[in-house]
Amino acid sequence: MIRKEKRRTLLVASASAALAASLIGAGAAQAAKPEAAAAPDISVDSVQKDLKELQSVAEANGGNRAHGEPGFKASIDFIKKKLDAAGFKTEVQEFDHGGKTGYNLIADWPKGGSADDTVMTGSHLDSVGDGPGINDNGSGSAGVLEVALAVAKEKLEPSKHLRFAWWGAEEEGLVGSQKYVDSLSKDDVKKIGTYLNFDMIASPNAGYFVYDDDAAVQKVFKDYYKSKDITTGTSPEVQGRSDHASFKDAGVTVGGTFTGAGETMTEEQAKQWKGKAGEPFDSCYHSECDDISNINEKALDVNSDAIAHAVWELSS
Length: 316
Prior knowledge:
The chain is 44% helix and 15% strand. It is α/β, with parallel strands linked by helices. A seven-stranded mixed β-sheet has the order 1-2-4-3-5-7-6, sandwiched between helices. The longest helix has 29 residues, at 4-32. The radius of gyration is 24 Å and the shape is globular.
C-alpha cells in the first residue's frame, strides 16, 4: 500500500501529465483545424458587364426597369438565367401592387448548412420610372449577383445556408421585400440569422457608409474597410429607407453598405473619401441620367468585394 504523501504526489503528477497531454491534444486539434477560406476577389469587369446588360434592358423597354414595366421582368429573367446556370435553386415570387404585377427573385445555394440558420443577401432590382437605375440599384443587384456566382464557382460549402434575393417595387415603398417577409411563418423568419442589404454601392461622389443596426455585423464590414485604409461612416439616408427595414421590423439582424444618394457631401467627408464637398453623393439619384456613366468603378469594386467578404465571414 502506497503511503498518503507518496500517493498524493503520484496523483498530482498524473493529473499534471493528463492536463499536459490534453493541452497538447487540443493544440494539435486546433492546429489541424483548417481556417475558413477567404472570400475571392470579385471581378469589377464582370459587375460592369452586368450593369451594361441592365442598361440595355432599360433601353429596350422604354428607358426604365420600374415596377410593373417590361424592363423589370426582363431584369428578373436576366439574373435568373445566370443563377440557374450556376446551380442555384431559384423561385420567382409574384405579387400585386397598384394593379401591376411585381416579382421577387429568390435563389438558394443547395450546398452548405441547414436552412434553419440562413445568411440572406439582397438588393432591390427595380428602378424609378424616370431612368434605367444603374446605380440605384443596378449596382447593388449586380454586386450581389457576382458574389452569388462566386459562391458557385468556388463550390462553397459554408456551415450556414446561403440565400440571395432581388426585390421588386422597392421604389414603391419596400413592397417586394415586405411581401416576402409577410409570406414567411414566424418560424421561417427566425431561421434567417442575418439579412444583408446593398442599395447603391457605386455613387459617383461616393461615401463609404456601413449600416449601424447591429454592432457585430457592422464590425465585419468596418474591419474589411479598415484593411483597405478606408474610413467608414453612418448615414441618415439609410434608416428605414431600403429593404433591410422589412427584415429588421420582423426581428431579423440586418446590415449592409451604402455609398450615398441625394444628400450633400460635407467638407469632412470629402477629406475622408477624396470626394467633392457641397455636391450630392449621386447627382443623378432618381433621374434619367442614372445610367451606365453614373458609376464610380472604384467604389463598385471595393463594395462588391465587401459583399463577398461579409457573406464568407458570416456563413462560415
